[in-house]
What we know:
Largest sheet: 5 strands, mixed
Mean pLDDT: 83
Shape: globular
Distance between the termini: 52 Å
Helix content: 25-40%
Number of helices: 8
Number of domains: 1
Number of strands: 9
Strand content: 5-15%
Amino acid sequence: MIAEIKGKLSQTGYNLNESLEDNLTGNFFGALRYIPFDLALRNILVAGVYPSKVGDLIGKISADFWSDKIEFWPKADEGEIDALLNFDDTIIGIEVKYASGLSSDDNIDNSSIVDNQSVETEDSKNQLARESRDISRKGEGKTKILLFIANSESCRNVYNDVVNRNIISNDVQLAYISWQSILVELKKLKLDDRYYQVIIDDLISLLMKKGFKSFKDMQVDFDVDIDQEKFYSFYPTDSSDSDFESNSKIKGANTL
């Protein structure tokens, strides 16, 4: 609904991938606006954000009603970020991905001058790099965070790439949380207010429908005690006991 209100959904479908992401952004954050920040979104981010030091920074934010703190797709000097959370002491820019990758990138690499801050870094056209510069300008005097949300593999790859290249503004903390982690944290929320819980349950159903249910564990019965200091081999004996078929042995390493 938020994406449609903001004119982000094309009636002709020409921007299908963008529409899917914008609709997910609007549905997720638009729904969470109805729940106090301290009861839902803060808990989700504190528990699921990487690196954890950024989660600690978010944990210091205290807000009840926060619908007036979030802006969807605000225009900036170097582009348009999906959502901007502007609290008293902290600003959080949020970039959401669902069915596509970053909109822009280049080969700029400032990694060789990480330890020499007297050398001016070269500005990258990478989408997250551009957004970090916009957040840096908007968040003067505040703790500045750029949060990337995508599926788990994309989160790790993108984060490692931009951090290793040193292309994020020095005063902006880059972090990520995967949709899979968000779903896990949503399931942990048990709110006393039944109306709030309906919203949480709907968001759980939405993310599961989107395919973000992550592998958790296998229910396997062992007739021996498991020693966490040792390594073990697993040989499937009956494919009917599992949800997958394998013709290969899964074997643990014998040495580190």
